[in-house]
Known about the structure:
Chain A: The chain crosses the membrane at residues 12-36, 48-68, 74-94. The complex is a heterodimer. By secondary structure, chain A is mostly helical.
Amino acid sequence: xxxxSDLPPVAAIVIAVFVVLGSSLALLGSVGLLRLKxxxxxxxxPTLSYSYGTLLIIIGSMAMFxxxxxxxxxxxxxxxxxxxxxxxxxxxxxxxxxxxxxxDAKLGHDEIVPPRVTPSxxxxxxxxxxxxxxxxxxxxxxxxxxxxxxxxxx
Amino acid sequence: MxxxxxxxxxxxYAQIAMVLAIGxxxxxxxxxxRAQDRVLAIDTMYINAMLLFLLIGMGNGNVxxxxxxxxxxxxxxxxxxxxxxxxMRGEVIE
Lengths: 154, 94
């Protein structure tokens, strides 16, 4: 008998569902980080663990400790608010750094990114073909089977 | 099958899943073709370790793992911002 036996059965099952969902989504985000092909696609995958994983596990932890100690335990909200603030900042800075590095001619263009356009020389053509942007040339994914697909060189 | 046993199995599954997630991100750190891939993978690894700490605290019934998780979250944010500044400018403090 441990501390888990003090929980009501319905609350224990609800907490189990929250924990399993949160950890599965975090694992899915890490699998996406490994599988996606280019950096700009990979930037999207771990946000599953940033948002859904953190939120669901925090809700489960808050419910569990509130029921165990029979008082509201809400200090896990600090982690939630902190993640809510810091995740956009860090990912935005990382994305801008990657875009700057990809535009730098000295470092070599590893991925196809849109060129830098100043407002004075805005393009006369309003729509550019964005279908090839974000496809990496170096990394074709680790687990995905891209060998059978022909190399589409722009 | 009592509800307590279900919760124990759920917590064990969640901890194993987070360890697997840390393993996958460390694979991306070792392999990542460029520096920004490694930085992104290290950031994800920090967050997964934070979630693992929260889950271990839930499994032990110990509130004090929460503070470790908070420290890991703060350190992960600072690490990522410094690494992104270094990748962008070539120096951290200008």
